[in-house]
Amino acid sequence: MIIKDRDSRERDIKELKKLLSSYNLSPKQKFLIEREIYAIKRGDSGEDDSAYYIETFAKSD
Q1: Is 5 within a domain?
Q2: Torsion, Cα of 8, 14, 17, 22 (10° steps)
Q3: Which residues are CB-contacts of 24 (< 8 A; sequence separation ≥ 6)?
Q4: Segment holding 21, helix H or strand E
Q5: Which domain holds residue 42?
Q6: How far apart are CA 61 and CA 54, in angstroms?
Q7: Residue 31, domain member (yes or no)
Q8: pLDDT digit string (tens) for 8-56?
């Protein structure tokens, strides 16, 4: 019952990692970029978990 496949955020993560390694950033800027990468990854993980439970629940009916 997947309504819509989620959009990949891999491109966003790749761009942020490139930004992180390419420029002379302040420690605060590095921290903020790393925090954003972490948030994107955690969001993806949460979406995967949610999709699993929705699919499991939908199939049991």
Answers
A1: no
A2: -150
A3: none
A4: helix 10-22
A5: 10-15+26-60
A6: 11
A7: yes
A8: 889 999 999 999 998 789 999 999 999 999 999 999 888 888 888 888 8
DSSP state of 60: H
- Cα torsion 18, 38, 3, 58 to 10°: value is 150
Handedness of CA 51, 54, 60, 61 (dihedral sign): negative
Look at the chain and report how many structural domains it folds into: 1
φ/ψ region of 25 (left if φ > 0, alpha if ψ in -120 to 50, else beta) reads beta
For the record, the structure tokens of 1 come out as 């019952």
Assess if residue 39 is contained within a domain.
Answer: yes
